């Protein structure tokens, strides 16, 4: 098992890529904290994992709230005594073309996708510095490198995530803390599945592998970067995109 007895916090773990990552980490032997803003989904995810013999707990958290983030870290340490891995997966979209985007739409995405990542990363880094070890993994996107029509706010937020990832890698390496990001392409999440068939076909056609990615594809990337197999990898942005950016 790649992550045996490692303690991991995964934000946005109630569904989609976050849930798949929690399942993958548990399968690899990790003890997982399911963190999500949707309190109603946490208990069902935790119950399903523990029924399969995993060790998971749930904590309701709004990543934009410093008090919630502090509570998340406190509960993790109280229950497991340490923190080895953080997956900053929580994120939102509020799409609109530039001339139509509202201030509220821009602020919502930046608050969750940038401020939330910052707050979780900062709190985790303080704990990991004391331990002299740890891994921080951030959710980026191919949009954060190449941009995307109608996603000024989302693209800007993921550019910000990339910048934080590389900066933290520089700052935290001396404490034996690795920091990387995963940049998914078009992934078949519940949100994407609701899109019109024409749009889904366009997404598939853009990928060299001629399909949408699965949440498990991204989870596998996170598991690799969290493991000792990636012990000499830091400051990188791993694309999991089926070749859509080539």
Description:
The chain is an alpha/beta fold and 246 residues long. Helices cover 49% and strands 16% of the residues. It contains nine helices and seven strands. A seven-stranded parallel sheet has the order 3-2-1-4-5-6-7, with helices on both faces. Helix 1 (16-27) packs across helix 9 and helix 4 packs parallel to helix 6. The longest helix is centred in the middle third of the chain and has 29 residues, at 103-131. The chain is globular and about 50 Å long. The model has no long low-confidence stretch (mean pLDDT 95).
Keywords:
oxidoreductase; 246 residues; globular; Rossmann fold; Sc_DH/Rdtase_CS; KR_dom; 7-stranded parallel β-sheet; alpha/beta; 49% helix; NAD(P)-bd_dom_sf; EC 1.1.1.47; 7 strands
Q: What portion of residues is helical?
A: 40-55%
From the coordinates shown, what is the CATH architecture? 3-Layer(aba) Sandwich
Secondary structure category: alpha/beta
Number of strands: 7
Q: What is the CATH H-level superfamily?
A: NAD(P)-binding Rossmann-like Domain
The gyration radius over C-alpha positions equals 17 Å
* Highest CATH level, the class: Alpha Beta
- Helices, by number, come to 9
CATH domain topology: Rossmann fold
Strand content: 15-25%
